[in-house]
Known about the structure:
By secondary structure, the chain is α+β, with helices and mostly antiparallel strands. A hairpin with a 5-residue loop joins strand 8 and strand 9. It is globular, with a radius of gyration of 20 Å. The model has no long low-confidence stretch (mean pLDDT about 95).
Amino acid sequence: MSFEAKLKQYAKLIVESGLNVQKQQTVVIQGSIESAPLIKEVTRQAYQIGAKEVVVHFHDDEISRMKYDYNDVSFFEDVPQWLSSFKNDYAKQNACFLYIEDSDPEVMKGIDPLKISTWQKACHQAFKPYYELSDNMTNAWCIVASSSLRWANIVFPDMSDQEAKDALWNAIFKAAKIDGVHDPVEIWQAHRQSFEKRVNYLNNLNLTSLHYKNSLGTDITIGLNPNYLFAGGGSYLKNGVYNFPNIPTEEIFTSPNYQEAEGIVYSSMPLNYGGNLIDEFYLRFKEGRVIDFGAKTGYELLRSIIETDEGSHHLGEIALIPYDSPIHNLGILFYNTLFDENASCHFALGKGFSECIQGGNDKDKDELKQMGVNDSLTHVDFMLGTSDLSIEGTCQDGSVVTIFKDGQFVF
């Protein structure tokens, strides 16, 4: 099947399942100039199913990099009013938001990590209305990927430019279950149902904690909230619309008790954050808080993430993905969290999810925190899964159940 046919299927999946665009709804798209073919096809199909307007905010890696090269840290402390109004106003109009990942994983290599973290923090503060409407399941959002030359050259360094870009597109399509023949919306309906058995099992165990251990040195116990909920696949918005925030997705996740983590966790894959790589790092926790950390690559950037605010010293998410997962079995290191987090069990520092505790979508952030769900200006996933990862759960009655053995679900 031709590339054009697969691109149309991919756009259909994004519009109808990823965002689940409703009639007379505004769609806001953020992506690079190099992703224009995908953006145009998504725009076309969004209008065809009745979108009111499609608004595109283009960017370019090289131009973005120049801003960091030629400005000092103070420049990144303030977000322009037009940009905060753009994001917040559309959010208040119940727009849905599409983010297209295609950046060079090393676009910000050599940039002062403080500039990156300062801008990230300023944006989270300036876009507070947007984030609140996203976090409480009012607005739909979706993150997808598009092949770009610089990203492809890093993932497939031994190929020619065109071969690498084509290979990355093929990998993106495979991860998103696009084959050019079958209806992707139907395929993802079945994918959604595949999560339900495990989600229901975990939610009925009445777990109090999970203990992770592997040969890298990870040995950590994570406490769960009394009314925890695991979720997987997509999510229901408050208005009853179901959408998939990530394409691809293979994870089952929850938000742990942010005050209950004891032990050490080692990364199993590089973390790409803001166009810089952090690799071979560890985090040590006591009473839920990071008390020590180290990294072979990207130590200062890791420090900047942890020191974003108090909440970034704690965990907001734990996610379960078998080592033998469709994305891991592609045998590709993407250097992109959207893909790499779906190839490996992972944790996230920072903000937790309201959907991961009973009644959470009707609570504000202070009420959620009282229930054990972390709050922060940031949310950064990092991978820890290995082929020998074991996870054991302790239940309220004191019994111990095996969740993972040798990197795989046992149920």
